[in-house]
Amino acid sequence: MNYPLLKPKYYLSLIKDLLNFIRCPYSNPLKVKTVKQKVYDTIGLFFIKICFSISIASLLQFIYEPKNLTSINMSERFGPFVLVLVAGVILPLYEEITFRLSLKFKPTYLAVTSGTFIYYILTKAIFKSRISLVDDTFLYRISIGILFMIITYTIIRREKVKKLIDRFWKENFRFIYYLSCVSFAWLHIFNFELSIINGLLLPIITLPQLFSATIAGYTRIAFGFKYPLFTHMATNILFTLLSFIPLD
Fold this sequence. Notes:
membrane, protease, transmembrane helix, hydrolase, 248 residues, CAAX protease self-immunity
């Protein structure tokens, strides 16, 4: 039987396809693949991402390793089961909607993404809170996000506006893809202390997130939304479970 995940050449072909996409992003799949092929490719890219993330994390330990305040805060607030649920399911779903859903333009996709992104900015930059924290600012954050979502959808669902944005999306997809990758990675700076050294080292300490975003954006376009979503969930669940292992 054919088991591509056991063949080194298969991973080289995946890396080649990924690099070709990064060099010249396209808004529609160039190849039609079966569900089985998509699953194999997604698993293969997941293994590649994990190997890269572990390698970079190990290297950063020798250079500079800032404390992930978000992870520490969540570990203190949640028990093991809830932590896996929030970190491994809810947050990946939220982040994929925010940064990847609207890579393919539809009025509904862009409206939902706009609302969740506004919620993110309000939470992190304005109210200095946590995405998963239900505090006294939560009602304001969620209400403004939903309101922005409704207003955005009302505007862009109009035929003239829809056609204009659709054309802009197709003509500027390379920029949109790169922006989604960089914004996803660099906004993770809020996971750490907002210090001068962390700001200067931002491209380095968020390198794993940038690599993850390039793969997630590629699989979103080439395979569909559920593939980067499941990969994101699997990654977060894996590292969350590993965090339970005592190192002392």
